[in-house]
Design a protein that fits this description.
The strands form three sheets. Strands 3-2-6-7-8 form a five-stranded antiparallel beta sheet, with no helix packed on it. The protein has a two-stranded antiparallel sheet with strand order 1-9. With 211 residues, it is an alpha+beta fold. 18% of the residues are buried. The longest helix has 20 residues, at 89-108. It contains six helices and nine strands.
């Protein structure tokens, strides 16, 4: 008997169980997205879930920073908060370092050479940022994005594919999850599916069969 994926299934790219938008894919913007977007939104839901429920009943509020779950999912959201703080700790440290460096530049960059300020660059940013002035002569930081793909803030193990819909994924009782391994190299197509760098969780409810 042959099995195949049902025709009504849609594959979604996820990062730490959130839909993989462009801001989450890039290691330059992902830390700020997690620290300033995901965590505040989840904490808001955990403390007052009905605000989110009622807000999403208003069409004008669609697309806002709300979680489309009921209060029965509060404990799962709290678990995701804890997991985010643990697993994505390097991203949170990076985001805090960006705030600190921005404060340093605002207070100490007065139009002269920025070279002395490199000594005050926070540790999570060292080697990944250049200090400069913009066209309005305001101090700014420029990230070397290519290097960040080789830094702790780029977490391959948080990348996954889910057969589902929506933006936030907590549990996967009826979904196939394929996660990219953090310590395996890409295998050639000829190696076959058993050699690919994917760890898979299978669910029979997503599969169909053909005789």
């Amino acid at each position: 008997m042959n099995s195949y994926l049902r025709q009504d299934i849609v594959a979604e790219p996820l990062i730490n169980r959130w839909y993989a938008t462009a801001y989450l894919v890039s290691p330059m913007t992902a830390p700020l997205m997690v620290a300033n977007g995901h965590l505040p939104t989840m904490r808001s839901f955990a403390s007052a879930p009905m605000i989110h429920v009622n807000a999403l009943k208003n069409p004008e509020m669609q697309g806002g920073a709300y979680i489309a779950h009921g209060p029965e999912r509060v404990e799962e959201i709290k678990s995701l908060i804890a997991a985010t703080q643990q697993i994505q700790a390097p991203l949170l440290s990076f985001a805090e370092a960006v705030k600190e460096l921005d404060r340093v530049l605002a207070q100490e960059a007065k139009g002269f050479s920025l070279e002395p300020l490199y000594a005050k660059v926070p540790a999570p940013l060292k080697g990944y940022v250049e200090l400069t002035y913009d066209l309005q002569c305001q101090p700014a930081m420029r990230f070397v994005e290519g290097l960040l793909y080789h830094s702790p803030v780029y977490q391959k193990q948080s990348q996954a594919i889910a057969m589902s819909a929506g933006y936030l994924r907590i549990g996967f009782p009826d979904r196939i999850m394929a996660r990219r391994s953090s310590n395996t190299r890409r295998a050639p197509a000829s190696a076959g599916p058993s050699k690919r760098a994917l760890a898979t969780e299978r669910s029979p409810t997503l599969m169909a069969s053909a005789n």
